[in-house]
Amino acid sequence: MEILPFKQPKYLLMHLLLWVGVWFFYVYFFSYNSANSLYVTWFSSLLLPIAMGATYVTVYYLIPQYLLTRRYGLFTLYSAYTIIFTTYAVVLAMFGSFIFLSNFEVSTMPPMSRNVFFILILIFLVVGLVSFMVLLRHSFKTSATNKALQNKILDTQLQLKQQELQYLKRQLHPHFLFNSLNTIYGFALKNSLQTPDIILKFSNLLDYILYQVQEQQVTLEQELAHIKEYISLEELRFPDTLEVDWKLSDSALEKYQHLQLPPMLFLPFVENAFKHGTIINGTLRIGLAFNVTAQEIMFTICNSFRESEHSTETGIGLPNIKKRLELLFPQRHQFEISAAQDQYSVSLTLQLKNHAI
């Protein structure tokens, strides 16, 4: 574990500057009330390797092997051994200096060099400071690693959501195309003169589905235009039995026509209304309402139906659009379905606070 690495020259220089600074600190400290510069110099030089040994044993062995791995019992035990050996080495340095540097004369020894406790405090002060820097560096490194891991997880989740959205689109579009082709097929069987008009309108919708819908965002104006295109296509299929009530103020559309939103949000609901709607008293009634503000869109669509004739099978369109809403507008949409008095209604509210105009 490279806590204080030596491999790079800049780190080697940092280690060198650290211990040169410690040596000068010892010289300054032991020079207090002492004029014996020779003794102070040699004694400081003897203590320096002891301080280095205690420091490197702590930061390269005790901290990574026991403290960071939460083996606190062994960390305490081996720390005690380190203190004992360090004390023994300090005592040897004191006796060696007393014998060879002061010639057994206590009076010539600097006052601060006579107390083993002061000397141990000086050594372990260095050990403590270096250990603190090591733990601080480890904390920053761990925090950065965790942050990078969280970002990677978020990126992976985003990619999975994007893949899921693409999968839902691939299911939704064939479902829509299949229903539209059935309409064209029915007119073709009747040799209807309206078949070319239907094919033209269908080609416009096909262009929207195959190209524009691949964009992340489309304008509200584009979405509404293709809803109207689809309704006009259905009007050809129900020439005398369709009644569509469209409620959207021109002022709201003009003001919010450039509102950005994901494509194909409302068209599947319109398609389901026609597909599952029931002709009652000779008329299929479809009602659409849009209430648009800068913060939200409230969309409601209803169709006439008889419960006895209404299929309980929703196919893949409606479940897919529900799932898509959960991915695109998490916690920011309300979706309700109700059926009462020969009318089937779908209500959708989208919060647009994160979508630009």
- Indicate the mean pLDDT: 81
Say how many strands there are: 7
What structural category do the secondary elements indicate? alpha+beta
Helix content range of the residues, please?
55-70%
Percentage of β-strand residues: 5-15%
Major sheet summary line: 5 strands, mixed
Name the shape in a single word: rod-shaped
Note poorly predicted spans: 312-316
Strand adjacency order, main sheet = 2-4-5-7-6
- The radius of gyration over CA amounts to 41 Å
Distance between the termini: 53 Å
Order of helices and strands: HHHHHEHEHEHEEHEE
Q: Provide a count of the helices.
A: 9
Can you tell me about this structure?
Mean pLDDT is 81; it is low at 312-316. Helix content is 61%, strand content 13%. It is of the alpha+beta class and 357 residues long. The chain has 9 helices and 7 strands, in the order αααααβαβαβαββαββ. A hairpin with a 3-residue loop joins β4 and β5 (296-304). A 5-stranded mixed sheet has the order 2-4-5-7-6. Strands 1-3 form a two-stranded antiparallel sheet.
Q: What's a quick, concise take on this entry?
A:
The chain has 357 residues and is of the alpha+beta class. The chain is built from 9 helices and 7 strands; from the N terminus they run αααααβαβαβαββαββ. Mean pLDDT is 81; it is low at 312-316.
Please name the defining characteristics of this protein.
357 residues; five-stranded mixed β-sheet; two-stranded antiparallel sheet; rod-shaped; alpha+beta; 61% helix
